[in-house]
Amino acid sequence: QVQLVESGGGLVQTVGSLRIACAIAVHTFSSYAMGWLRQAPGKYREFVAAISRSGDSTYYGDSASGRFTISRDNGKNTVYLQMNSLRPEDTAVYYCAADETAYGTTYYRVDYYDYWGQGTQVTVSS
Prior knowledge:
Low-confidence stretches: none
Largest sheet: 7 strands, mixed
Structural class: mainly beta
Mean pLDDT: 95
């Protein structure tokens, strides 16, 4: 069973920054493409960012482009999401997700990822 545990969420003011992390308990972390997705109250879950198995390629949703940066440390089995210039509309539960077969456009698909964390709340106050 693949387990993912997010951390680092919290309350931050508008235009502030926050870094959230996700640790994954697997033998070969580099076999998994990793993604961050979020869900705000009353809204559908949406794609935020993803990173390839090697870390060489990154993908961003429109809401994250230019403000958020996804990265991974394959030695620590951890993926990060650095969020800058935060806005109240970024308030959501952020989920870490993993998949062994993601490629191309599937990185952007919320329904493609096989494994999910429990989520971490990020609240941006105005």
